[in-house]
Amino acid sequence: MDNVVFKPHEGPQTKVLQRSEKEILYGGARGGGKSTAMTAWMVEPSYIENPLFRGLVIRRNYTDLRDWIDNARNMWRYLNVKVVGNPAEFRFPSGAKIRTGHLSDENSWSAFLGHEYQKMGIEELTLLDSEEKYLRLISSARTTIPELKVQIFCTTNPGGPGHHWVKSRFVDPAFNKTYTDDRGNSRIFIPSRIYDNPTLMEVDPGYLDMLETLPDDLRSAWLEGSWDTFAGQYFKDFNRDVHVVEPFKIPDGWRRYIGIDYGYTAPMAVVWAAVDWDSNVYIYREHYEAGKELNYHISKIIEYSGEEEIHLRLADPAMWIRNPQNSNRPDEKLPSMLSIADIMLMKGVTVVKANNDRVNGWNNMRAYLNWDGDINKKTITKAPKLKIFSTCENWIRTIPALSHDKHKVEDIDTKMEDHLADATRYMLFHIGSPDKPIKAKPWVIRELEKLERYGVETDLTIRS
Hints:
The protein is α/β, with parallel strands linked by helices. It has 17 helices and 18 strands. The strands form 3 sheets. It has a 9-stranded mixed sheet with strand order 3-4-5-2-6-7-1-9-8. A 7-stranded mixed sheet has the order 10-18-13-12-11-14-15. Strands 16-17 form a two-stranded antiparallel sheet. The longest helix has 14 residues, at about 60-75. The protein is elongated, with a radius of gyration of 28 Å. It starts with 11 loop residues before the first helix and ends in an 11-residue tail after the last helix.
């Protein structure tokens, strides 16, 4: 066993090397063993033993590529591989080849177009500033050899010019689960942190100390692997591990609210929330669709609410404007001067005009999201007052991505996808907690029961 150079650590590193999805993103935090895993993945035996196998490894610039080549030489030293050329090409005894390249200038892109690579490894994916460049690059990931399945293995940390598109493509839809797009292509994001790399923790404990002393934004991204923190982020407190909870049955007696932000071209955003006895708010349902008539959204609100008793429905004040770009169906002969709020009332959904003070509304929402503690040590010293069911995927996707307005830093940039944030802001401004049920004393219960025996109606709910 002297020639065993690499054995994956239990946990994410082992898991990622067993994946069968077409596109794999591995990483998040620093020190999780991303590059080592990808280097091992490139030399899967069934591939390098096939003379027709062609692989490609991409780094952003030549300096980074040279560092990867040195590590690969060491890791593959018992595979009888020859290294030739510049950038390096690894040639295996079977005839299989793994080529390397970088993307330091526009001309370098053309070097890979038209080729066929069954395995493609891309390091530091967020350094690609657009999804278009990524798609151009992986257009060369294809196969004409049935036994060699195409796969793309990417690594990265949060941050960088491509943060948002990488988060949108991998992290949001494929966090530790397989996502298949409309064309049948599958992808997955496997997160890892330094705690998943015991070798590094043992050999270089000072690296963990360095990560723990970073400024808040960098520590959140590089130590915790949070994709919900970035420069300019508006709701910096949001953390998936802290704010997102699995669904549960809402207890009887919790007061329920709905927040509504109207949209036609932009999505109609509706959130349902329940408030517990201690004023904690749980967003437990969402409705988020664009391009639909108002009647469609009304029917969804009614359908999703079912028999629930809604205390208040707080709505966008713009919904009280008369004669909007009309949302009612043309065959319904409704008066043209009706507002959206009027139409909703006629259809059985009563709404209340919300406070539209944006800055104070956002400050209030931030207060609900605020928490304190150490997520890595699983210690929360102050829990947030706002939590979100994991089924509210659009809320979880859009709220962390919101940024400050460049010209009015106290506000959110309204060009972003802020519709569910608006609906939540309207609702939180008006939320109160329900009264805790009062447990009646035994003598009171006896008197109430006596009155009932004589046919006097009483409210016995105070017993519980």
